[in-house]
Amino acid sequence: MRNPLTVLFRDDHLLVVHKPAGLLVHRSPIDRHETEFALQYARALNGGRHVFPVHRLDRPTSGILVFARDSVTARTMGLAMMSGEVNKTYLAMVRGWPEECGEIDYPLKEEPEDRRLKGIEQPVREAFTRYRTLSTTEIPVAIEKYPTSRYAVVELCPRTGRKHQLRRHMKHINHPIVGDANHGRGRHNRYFAERFGQGRLMLAATRMEFTHPASGEQMVVTATPEDSFLEVLSVFPEFPVSGQSE
């Protein structure tokens, strides 16, 4: 069986991979029927030995995923994540044209994975996201009430790590991510799914910066979005797709 993970970096302490969209990181009470997980494929890349996921990447999101190869590294990386010492950058395609750049400061209520907890009041936590608009386009298709439809490619940098933060924050500023079934716009999602023969969340983790937990070296790991993502970005004729992995 082909391993869907692509190794981006590996040493004695870390295994950094590219995860495709549609693959769960590990077992979840929401998707009990699933039998394939990034965790098991990462173990295969680690010679069958246990690995520790040090952060979360939603199932429909593709991109950089970090595993620790030992518990000490996992603890160190986990603390770095929690203290904001790890910088993550995402690429997204959104509806409309956002401002050139900005920061979204909008607290978010916790979203429990277990549906049985949905009726219980959840805490609200601070959440910050910086964004920068990289490219815009307008296509001659009437999807809502206008004769044309506008879209943008944005760079998103979360400063906190709330569940579905980027998807919820972009909805909050009325520029939802294309392909987001829960927080997006159905008409736009259906248009791109029909046009390209497949629907996907247009969100990819493309860059991560952190201090190596053992050597202290400053690490920068990058990943070009997968083909299904780049295919949809073809509606942006001026966007330099190949440059996003730098």
TrEMBL record:
E.C. no: 5.4.99.26
Transmembrane segments: none
Domain Pseudouridine synthase RsuA/RluA-like: 13-172
Domain of life: Bacteria
Reaction catalyzed: uridine(65) in tRNA = pseudouridine(65) in tRNA
Protein name stated in the entry: tRNA pseudouridine synthase C
Function in brief: Responsible for synthesis of pseudouridine from uracil-65 in transfer RNAs.
Key words of the record: Isomerase, tRNA processing
GO terms, molecular function: RNA binding; tRNA pseudouridine(65) synthase activity
GO biological process, one term: tRNA processing
Keyword Transcription regulation: no
Enzyme class: isomerase
Pfam families in the record: PseudoU_synth_2
